[in-house]
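In this supplementary section we document a worked example of the pipeline. Step one takes a protein sequence of length 69 as its only input; no multiple sequence alignment statistics are reported here. Step two produces a three-dimensional model, which step three serialises into structure tokens for compact storage. The input and output of this example are shown verbatim.
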Amino acid sequence: MERRLTLRERVKVKLHFWICVWCQWYMEHLQVIRNASRAQAAKAPDVMTSASLSNEARERIRRRLTNQN
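The serialised model returned by step three reads:
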């Protein structure tokens, strides 16, 4: 899913799916999750870009990180 498989890899995966119903089931569920994630991201693309921390929260994080070192 992260990269295009080579022909050899695709053949191996297809052969494996013929004998392993669990892996086939798992891959189908990964596809559902992937499609749902993409659909959700397309609905609200600016949600992640508009998120920011308050100055107080930034300072608390800075203090905690400084105290741990």
